[in-house]
Amino acid sequence: MLTIGEFSRLARVSTRVLRHYDALGLLCPEQVGANGYRYYRQEQLAVLGQIRRLKEYGFSLSQIRQLLPLPDPQLVHRLRLRRMELCQQLEAQRALLRRMEGDILRMEGIEMSAETYPVILAEDPAQKVFSVRRQTGTDQFHILFHELREQAAKQGLRQAGPIQMLYHDPEFRHDSSDVEAQMVVAQDGPGVMEKPPFSCISVLHRGSYARLSDAYDALCAWLAEHPEYRICGPAMDRYLNDPALVSSPDELETMVLFPVTKA
Fold first, then answer.
1. Residue 128 C-beta-side C-alpha neighbours within 13 Å
2. Is the sign of the CA dihedral 154, 160, 163, 168 positive or negative?
3. pLDDT at 164
4. What is the Cα–Cα distance from 147 to 132, expressed in whole angstroms?
5. Fewer CB atoms inside 10 A, N or C side of the chain?
């Protein structure tokens, strides 16, 4: 058996931390003497190592207390979920660094060799569309798209173009937005309407939907430089390929459109 001091020296962790872990039920001493001295088994060094690693992975102490008793298959599942979260955070940080680097170059008067998001001013043609409009959160868009496809199939409608999303809210809200999912269709039928043509500015975004805000930033920057144009309708995301049919989020292509009119 190891005294708390010996255990502390070997593990390179303070006795204060060990007492805190004991109080939380994370790592309790094997034995507490009548005099209050704490004693640990040497094998408990491995448990302390696991706690340290889980902390490094970003788990809170309360989460670690729940993870420690899990068998390996269940723990692996939790680690995979945490790995996915870290990858998403890393991708967001990389996008932020790219944006920052672009700002630095512009402020230093250095022209970019090629625009990441060349803005196109053009006429978007008329389309026959079948749509479903709901109040829903951004994390529920996939459910709305599923409902759109189901309802179109019930009406016997054949998809003849991309799925697209319109944002009708006067302000953006993640938790509950007034959105309209549209499917371009080939024929007339119940619920089918014709989307009229409109002038718009647009950019093509290649990559994860998590970085779609970069495309919006490019359009907003263009509007700031062209005050003679004004937004005159809801913004639209046009999904040019199906996430289920690509091997990587990097292959996703999304057109972002802002309807505009010249002042």
1. 13
2. negative
3. 96
4. 8
5. C
Largest CA distance in the chain: 86
C-alpha 48/C-alpha 27 separation (Å) is 7
3-state secondary structure 25-36: CCCCCCEECCCC
Tokens (6 digits) for 179: 């959105």
Element (H, E) at 245: none
Beta strands at 120-124 and 198-206: parallel, antiparallel or unpaired: antiparallel
134: which strand partners?
Answer: 179
* Cα 177 to the center of its chain, rounded Å: 17
Intervals of the chain under pLDDT 50: 112-114
Angular region, 149: left φ>0, alpha ψ -120 to 50, beta rest? alpha
Instruction: Specify the pLDDT at position 174.
Output: 76
> What's the pLDDT score for residue 104?
85
**Helix, strand, coil percentages, rounded to 5, for the chain:** 45, 25, 30
- Taking the CB of residue 46, how many other CB atoms lie within 10 A of it? 10
Instruction: Give the per-residue pLDDT at 111.
Output: 54
Query: The whole model's pTM is what?
Result: 0.60
What pLDDT is attached to residue 115?
A: 55
